[in-house]
Amino acid sequence: MGCLFCEIAEKKRPAKLIYEDELAVAFEDINPQAPVHCLVVPKKHISTSLEIGKEDNALVGHLFQVANKIAKDRGIAERGFRLVMNCNPESGQTVFHIHLHILGGRIMHWPPG
Ligand code: AMP
Ligand code: ZN
To answer: Is the distance from CB of 102 to CB of 40 less than 8 angstroms?
Structure first.
C-alpha cells in the first residue's frame, strides 16, 4: 500500500498545494473542520510522532515554522489558531504519515472532542 501523503508530496496525487520547500509541503485539508484547515507534511515519511527521532529535530522545528508562516499569511496568527498532530487510532489519526493540522478562523473549544 502506498502512502497518501508521500504521493501528494511527490505530486503523484492531486492536492491544493499552498506551500513547498525542500523539506515539506502544505496543502488544504480535503475535509476542512474550520475556515482555515491546512496540513503541513514533511517530505520524509515518518508514520507517527512516536517515530520522530533525534535526527528529525530540525525537520520537526521546520514544520512549526512553516505552520507559523501559513497562519500569518492567512491572517489567523494574532487571533489564534490550533496546531494538532494526532498519534495512533484513539487520537483520530487516519493517515499514517505525520502532519500538523493548522486550524483557525473560528473559536476553538477545549477540551477537544
Ligand atoms: P489525521 O486524522 O490526523 O490522520 O488527519 C488526516 C487528515 O487528512 C484529515 O483531516 C483528512 O481530512 C485529510 N485528508 C485525507 N485525505 C486527504 C487528501 N487526499 N487531501 C487532503 N487532505 C486529506
Ligand atoms: Zn508517507
So the answer is: yes
